[in-house]
Amino acid sequence: MALLQISEPGESTAPHEHRLAAGIDLGTTHSLVASVRSGAADILPGADGSRILPSVVRYSDQAVIVGAEALKNAHEDPLNTIISVKRFMGRGADDIAADDHHYRIINSDNSGVPRIQTCQGDKSAVEISAEILRVLRSRAEATLGGELTGAVITVPAYFDDAQRQATKDAARLAGLHVLRLLNEPTAAAVAYGLDKNPTGTYAIYDLGGGTFDISILSLESGVFQVMATAGDSALGGDDMDLKIAYWIMGQAGLEQKPGAGDWRQIVMASRRAKEALTDNEQTSIAIKLSAGSAWQGEFSRQQFNDLVDPLIDKTIMPCRRALRDAGLTVDTIDGVVLVGGSTRVPRVRERVLEFFGQEALSDINPDEVVAIGAALQADVLAGNKPDGEMLLLDVIPLSLGIEIMGGMVERIVPRNSTIPIARAQEFTTYKDGQTAMAIHVLQGERELVQDCRSLARFELRGIPPMAAGAARIRVTYQVDADGLLNVSAREEISGVSAEIEVKPSYGLSDGEIERMLRDSIEHAREDMDARNLQEQRVDADRLLEALHAALAQDGDALLDTLERVRIDEAMSNLSRARDGQDLDWIKQAVDELDKASSEFAARRMDAGIRAALRGHTLEEIGDLSSAAKKE
Amino acid sequence: MQPGVGKNYFELFGLPARFDVDLPGLNNRYRSLQQQFHPDRFASGSEQERRMAMELTASINEGLRVLRNPLARARYLLELAGISVNDETDTAMNPAFLMEQMEWREQLDAVRSGPADDAGPVLQSLSKDVNNAFNRRVDQLRTELNNDDLSAARTHVRELQFLDKLKMQIEEIEESLF
Lengths: 631, 178
Known about the structure:
The complex is a heterodimer of chains A (about 625) and B (about 180). Chain A is of the alpha+beta class.
């Protein structure tokens, strides 16, 4: 039999063109964008040269201001200046109420999506994050000189489905094509090139402005796996600032917290003092309040260390827990990576060294390391490195389950399963003549529904009446490479089915995103149409390019004449459609070509499986029995 | 229309459908397939390619899970032979096996409710007994499956399911203690 030639996947579409791709660290306190240029990853600065964009959005009467300028004037307009919006991503109104914040949160449409009241209307966390992403996108496009093919956006390893979905929605709203959501600790490990080691176990210590995360990663033959994560979602450099701020209050003889504007000024002065103490043993602080009173004083590193030691203790506890969850001891850790601006604090470094018994990797700027790793991965995913070996396999951080009788949760996909994954389980009816079944999708490790996070509910209707226990309802959970879930249910005897893309309870519907996209474009209607047409053409071109390359390579070997004619016809139909202005015609032509060619695509993949295994088959001939290992 | 559909997991990995599996070989094949078909390899590809890559990779991941684990693999081999392990019309178990199970479960309950200091040695000996019983059955299962004695194999797979659950419960208690 003639050997089939299979091209490297991802190479089929225009291999010579360098695609512009960016890595984005969408952080709680600040955000960054980076890209690989001439072989090296670097941060893309704004027009003013700043590498870091404070994750601050201010809604003023005239405009939306993002970044340093919004932060600088935050104390003048605290209610319309949104700081640390990441804490609200994918959260419900109830989750947020418990947090310490000063915004006016409302649940205007009873959708469960909390919105912050601003002078430009009520804004969801997704919309506010999209403003930050928009600025990063234009930074990247201005610096790189062209439109981005796509971006890798990082998320904390512990982010659940709702939070990941919210991040992806924000990207979509900002007009970004998401190549992949990547776990932040994995990105940091990639930035240090740890993926080039054959094996290893690493601890990623990430102390940012508002959150602390410790992740234990294992690497085996190019596969990164998050083994355990722990942390504190309300602990970071901001808490250090607050410690100093309360100390200043005491020193200045203030008996109660001053107004929002004055307080913010004290907190800013505290942050500057903290930063000054990274390189100096001593610094001075000066405060001038709106009422006219003032305070000035000296502050030493020793004083600072004493103030923040209890906070650092709170990071060491999760390190212990994560190691225990991973079943490891400190001495089995091959390397420690520092991430997050707060790891610049000398006391933090001392304590990390003390706990892990080794110097941590810190050559790369800890504020930038996650974005750098994301940029390296974006470059690979955009197809600029067709021979790249790097493959990052992620696991799902929390188990996915379904509600069964008695308020119990039946686990369908266990945590730490490698994704993508599809798992099906069969259920049945419990009453005679039952025609509908409620499906409640949950995430978490606990056995009771009330202790897990509710992701979605939907119903399978139209089950033909049968005796209790006779129906066979197959529920399938499918998790894609970004960790996003799709659930479908099908009654096997009648063939009735229902499906839901799990839009978490606090997420946005497709309709809402569409409306927001439209609102965000100034000349709404026509621009929206033009944009849709443009997007549809890009889709059409991708399919045509991919098929042209595939046909040239395997068309003769894998297709008979009739099949080939059908595909060719569907292709020329799509070519005509994409040159025209009729959006629906293009959509329809894409669908038709997809149908006509999917058998061909499936055969190519099957041939690819044989090709991928060919080397392995040879090495095993005559060696079958001796190769069999006992468990 | 899915790639790899109609293939069982052994065929997907190009391995002979039998109980003994070359584990390092399985892992190498897994990585080769992932290198070629992970959705990341099609991040800039067409919608069609990405969809198929995701479905295929999901099968590859599930296939690895099933083939790597002796109990899941044995159950899968029986399924391929048309034998349902957990058929509710045939739930008879060997009385001696059930007696042993009950004794072990009583010991486990005693550890749960007793003082934590005494738990260590009891759990250790219990864990050893259960693991021995487990490994002995895996050996028997290998012989039975190689000789096509499927009905005996089904009995042992069902017993292994009990033992597997017991192993997990012991581990859970160990974790909660240390």
